[in-house]
């Protein structure tokens, strides 16, 4: 069993799927429960007494759950998984080897295989295309985004930048963490030899509500770190999508908080984000009529996963 990596699994009301995926992990696991009402914590303790379960007692969001899990670990590296994902055999041992060999790298994004037929997630070809190249001494192409269920991080780096911003809750919270790691001087890399499996299933959650939260978080992330033109672009993008217009009101309620915590990115990181966001017509994606592709969003500004 891998001893230098702890897997932190955030979950809420997916007891049956969680119990199945927990059997597949080959490293110590911490489960953080976001206020489940389906008996998840008791079921995990009964079937996996060796697994530590942290109960937040409310739906605090994926970022808060992952932060709580990282705080409870004592290993140098942390891997995230969702209740519908797991790491392939050998992946976490290899991740630990890569992070030890590349001390300037804080984050490794994995190759993601989706469903029982193991389809390659669209994020992977986009990351493999390496629009930012490969930094000297890095283990793979430079990225500025990741899937929350398929990433391994250096715990020290994660804690130095404060982890996830819990105010963002769930959906799109990865983008800000990726920016903050890069702003702190850390390298983020795609490592295709690391494989994570993702087994998403319909869960009855409201896609309109999710779209609204995603748009809100894009707006707040832009307000926290990006130039005014990007904030304006995200406002236009939300207005053009009827299901996302309410996000403008949601973000406006948080604007005071965002401005108090605003910390513009270093110019080099901002340039890299602009490079990744630039569409085929030379304009940034957020200024076009169509949304960015899943791969470009993932690599450039943080993939939204759930």
Automatic annotation (TrEMBL):
Region (Disordered): 275-306
Organism superkingdom: Bacteria
Residue ranges with Basic and acidic residues bias: 278-288
InterPro entries noted in UniProt: Glyco_trans_2-like (IPR001173), Nucleotide-diphossugar_trans (IPR029044)
GO molecular function, one term: glycosyltransferase activity
Listed SUPFAM superfamilies: Nucleotide-diphospho-sugar transferases
Keywords on record: Glycosyltransferase, Transferase
Cross-referenced Gene3D superfamilies: Spore Coat Polysaccharide Biosynthesis Protein SpsA, Chain A (3.90.550.10)
Pathway this chain belongs to: Cell wall biogenesis; cell wall polysaccharide biosynthesis
Domain Glycosyltransferase 2-like: from-to ranges: 6-161
Family of the protein in this entry: Belongs to the glycosyltransferase 2 family.
Protein name, entry field: Glycosyltransferase, GT2 family
Source organism (scientific name): Micromonospora siamensis
């Amino acid at each position: 069993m891998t001893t230098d990596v702890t897997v932190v699994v955030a979950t809420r009301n997916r007891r049956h799927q969680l119990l199945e995926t927990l059997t597949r992990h080959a490293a110590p696991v911490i489960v953080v429960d976001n206020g489940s009402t389906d008996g998840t914590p008791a079921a995990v303790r009964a079937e996996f007494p060796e697994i530590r379960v942290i109960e937040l007692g409310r739906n605090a969001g994926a970022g808060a759950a992952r932060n709580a899990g990282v705080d409870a670990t004592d290993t140098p590296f942390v891997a995230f998984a969702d209740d519908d994902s797991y790491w392939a055999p050998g992946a976490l041992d290899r991740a630990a080897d890569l992070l030890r060999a590349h001390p300037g790298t804080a984050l490794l994004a994995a190759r993601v295989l989706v469903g029982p037929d193991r389809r390659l997630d669209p994020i992977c070809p986009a990351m493999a295309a390496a629009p930012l190249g490969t930094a000297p001494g890095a283990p793979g192409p430079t990225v500025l985004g990741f899937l929350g269920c398929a990433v391994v991080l250096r715990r020290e780096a994660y804690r130095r930048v404060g982890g996830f911003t819990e105010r963002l809750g769930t959906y799109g919270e990865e983008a800000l963490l990726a920016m903050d790691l890069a702003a702190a001087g850390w390298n983020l890399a795609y490592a295709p030899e690391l494989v994570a499996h993702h087994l998403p299933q319909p869960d009855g959650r409201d896609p309109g509500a999710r779209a609204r939260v995603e748009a809100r978080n894009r707006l707040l992330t832009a307000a926290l770190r990006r130039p005014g033109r990007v904030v304006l672009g995200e406002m236009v993008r939300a207005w053009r999508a009827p299901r996302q217009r309410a996000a403008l009101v949601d973000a406006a309620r948080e604007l005071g908080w965002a401005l108090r915590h605003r910390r513009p990115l270093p110019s080099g990181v901002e340039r890299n984000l602009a490079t990744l966001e630039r569409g085929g017509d030379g304009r940034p994606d957020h200024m076009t009529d169509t949304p960015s592709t899943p791969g470009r969003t993932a690599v450039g500004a943080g993939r939204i996963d759930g």
